[in-house]
Amino acid sequence: QVQLVESGGGLVQAGGSLRLSCAASGYIFSNYQVAWFRQSPGKEREFVAAIRGGGGRTYYADAVKARFTISRDNAKKMVWLQMDSLKADDTAVYYCAADRRLPDRQPNLSGDYYYWGQGTQVTVSS
């Protein structure tokens, strides 16, 4: 059984930083690409960032480029999302997602991922 557990969310002032963690279990982690998505009230879930299984290639949504950094440690079965220069618009529930499939394009669709965590709330006050 594949499980993903997010942590690290909270309340932060605009301009501040948070580091989200995604702990994985139940499979050979290095075979899976992992992504972060987010969803705020009244909006659809949107792609934030993704990282390939080997960790060598990363993808970012335009809204977070140069502010967020995704990384992973396959030995620890962990993925992190470092979020800097946070804005009020970054307020959302953040989800970790994983899948073994490797589309030949940026893996930025919800349908690219089968396994999902429960989410962690990030609130940025302005």
What does this structure look like?
By secondary structure, this protein is mainly beta. Helix content is 0%, strand content 48%. The chain is built from no helices and 11 strands. The strands form 2 sheets. Strands 2, 4, 5, 6, 9, 10 and 11 form a 7-stranded mixed beta sheet that branches. It has a 4-stranded antiparallel beta sheet with strand order 1-3-8-7, with no helix packed on it. β4 (33-39) and β5 (46-51) form a beta hairpin. It is globular, with a radius of gyration of 13 Å. The model has no long low-confidence stretch (mean pLDDT 95).
Structure described in brief:
With 126 residues, the protein is mainly β. Helices cover 0% and strands 48% of the residues.
Topology readout:
Layout: E1 3-7, E2 10-13, E3 18-25, E4 33-39, E5 46-51, E6 58-60, E7 68-73, E8 78-83, E9 92-99, E10 115-116, E11 120-125
Largest sheet: 7 strands, mixed
Overall mean pLDDT score?
95
The outline comes out as globular
Task: Tally the helices.
Answer: 0
Q: Return the string of H and E elements.
A: EEEEEEEEEEE
What is the count of β-strands?
11
Assess the beta-strand content as a share of residues.
over 45%
Keywords:
single chain; 126 residues; mainly beta; seven-stranded mixed beta sheet; four-stranded antiparallel beta sheet; globular
